[in-house]
Write a structure and sequence with these properties.
By secondary structure, this protein is of the alpha/beta class. The protein folds into two domains: 1-31, no CATH class; 45-271, Vaccinia Virus protein VP39 (Rossmann fold). 29% of the residues lie in helices and 15% in strands. An eight-stranded mixed beta sheet has the order 1-7-8-6-5-2-3-4, with helices on both faces. Helix 7 (195-207) crosses helix 8 (224-233). It is globular. It starts with a helix and ends with a strand. The structure holds S-adenosylmethionine. S-adenosylmethionine binds next to helix 6 and strand 3.
């Protein structure tokens, strides 16, 4: 019996003394009292290998990051701190200088990306035009999947000293000419989560990705649309490589792309092959 299963059985034998105990244990396991735990328990979908950040990027543990106003984040709509830390560490580790974010929202992730970039780097961030109607998008999105923000888009960086590293673009990600935005080391996809949008954003992301670059999706494992698109994009037979790649990373290998999900987060990554 595996270690995890063995521990689970030993815990059940220790805690369960009656049918009532069993019912309470099952209920608590299904619906933990801590809302954060309940949220984490909803990250149940997807077939990508879940790897620790340190496994995907050996040596990343020595990377320092800066997080601005960590507890001013709207957790239901943005990255949690573990995810933000991982994304920023990846940016630093890969020495990325050109980042594209789809889905600006209040701009707190954009701001933190910019804060972790050198002066000559840039973040391009895209969101729907403020005056646009949520139902007038290039791809028809069912009402329940429309997520146009009600925030002032990018409000967190508008007055920031890091503003000079940020280019704000207003447009529908499915209607934009992505090639006019440039080429990118990292494309972070976190806009409309409706399946056809995620697919469209993903195809566009690969078109503007530098060789050796990374596409990063948010909400993998929790949102079924995102998860199905990423799983579908993963080339059959693609596995995390044991060979070292860029900076000793375990990610880029062979000719194709390598797909992994970062354990403990809703981040999925596709690493394109180096030139
Ligand atoms: C989950 S929020 C993004 C969160 C942000 N990346 C962060 O980490 O804080 C999704 C954003 O995508 C935007 N959005 C929705 N549909 C879009 C579309 N078709 N094109 C561009 N942005 C879109 C919404 O207005 C919203 O601000």
């Amino acid at each position: 019996m595996g270690t995890f299963a063995g521990r689970a059985v030993r815990k059940i034998l220790r805690d369960v003394k009656s049918p009532r105990d069993a019912a309470v244990l099952c209920w608590r396991a299904m619906v933990p009292p801590d809302p954060r735990l309940r949220e984490i328990r909803s990250r149940i979908w997807g077939n990508l290998p879940r790897v620790a950040l340190r496994e995907a990027f050996p040596g990343i543990e020595t990377v320092d990051i800066q997080i601005l106003e960590p507890y001013r984040r709207q957790l239901a709509s943005t990255l949690d701190l573990e995810e933000l830390s991982a994304l920023l560490a990846i940016v630093r580790y890969t020495n990325s200088k050109n980042i594209l974010e789809i889905g600006t929202y209040d701009g707190s992730t954009t701001l933190n990306l910019a804060a972790n970039l050198p002066e000559d780097a840039r973040v391009v961030t895209v969101d729907l035009p403020p005056q646009s109607a949520a139902d007038q998008t290039a791809i028809t999105v069912p009402t329940e999947h429309r997520n146009k923000t009600k925030h002032v888009i990018g409000e967190r960086f508008l007055q920031s000293p890091h503003r000079s590293k940020i280019r704000q673009v207003f447009g529908d990600s499915a209607a934009l000419d992505w090639t006019s935005l440039g080429l990118f080391d990292i494309v972070f996809i976190d806009g409309c989560h409706f399946q056809e949008y995620v697919l469209s954003d993903t195809r566009n992301a690969f078109a503007v990705l530098r060789p050796g670059g990374l596409v990063v999706w948010h909400d993998y494992g929790q949102n079924r649309h995102v998860t199905e698109v990423v799983d579908g994009m993963r080339s059959p037979g693609s596995k995390p490589s044991s060979q070292n790649g860029r900076n000793g990373s375990a990610l880029p290998s062979g000719n194709g792309r390598t797909y992994v999900a970062i354990s403990g987060t809703r981040l999925a990554l596709a690493a394109s092959a180096r030139p």
